[in-house]
């Protein structure tokens, strides 16, 4: 049987996630994709812990408000990360799509091989 996390322990995890999400923004701004991926894995692990073990039955109103505030901060950071990563991802998609088209042309006309 899994031990359910009380709200104070959940808030600590949300605080860790918020700290990591801020670092994710910094990594995205610096185009440090490896760091961004590592941080995302850490956030994902914490999120999984919350999904599997959260207990909100004994939450106090101030704890719920703190949790709500942290989630809003994490979501703002996520939007900022996406603002930096989506153009890069579109560039990669375009590059890979262009390579696929070139391979199709090469195959169709017997070139490159």
Largest sheet: none
Q: Over all CA atoms, what is the radius of gyration?
A: 21 Å
CATH superfamily: Flagellar protein flit
Mean pLDDT: 87
State the shape: elongated
N→C terminal distance: 59 Å
Secondary-structure element pattern, one letter each: HHH
- Number of domains in the coordinates? 1
Q: Provide a count of the helices.
A: 3
Strand portion:
under 5%
Q: Which blocks of ≥5 consecutive residues have pLDDT under 50? A: none
CATH topology, by name, is Methane Monooxygenase Hydroxylase, Chain G, domain 1
Sheet/helix structural class: mainly alpha
The share of residues in helices is over 70%
State the main characteristics:
3 helices, mainly alpha, Methane Monooxygenase Hydroxylase, Chain G, domain 1, 82% helix, 113 residues
Overview of this protein structure:
It is a single chain. By secondary structure, the protein is mainly α. It has a single domain (7-109), classed as Up-down Bundle (Methane Monooxygenase Hydroxylase, Chain G, domain 1). Helices cover 82% and strands 0% of the residues. It contains three helices and no strands. The protein has helices spanning 7-29, 33-53, 61-109. The protein is elongated and about 70 Å long. 14% of the residues are buried.
């Amino acid at each position: 049987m899994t031990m359910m996390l009380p709200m104070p322990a959940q808030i600590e995890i949300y605080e860790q996630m918020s700290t990591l999400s801020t670092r994710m923004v910094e990594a995205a701004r610096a185009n440090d994709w490896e760091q961004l991926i590592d941080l995302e894995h850490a956030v994902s692990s914490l999120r999984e812990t919350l999904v599997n073990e959260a207990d909100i039955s004994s939450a106090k109103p101030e704890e719920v408000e703190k949790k709500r505030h942290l989630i809003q901060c994490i979501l703002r950071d996520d939007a900022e990360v996406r603002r930096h990563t989506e153009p890069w991802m579109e560039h990669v998609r375009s590059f890979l799509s262009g390579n696929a088209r070139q391979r199709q042309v090469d195959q169709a006309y017997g070139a490159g091989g």
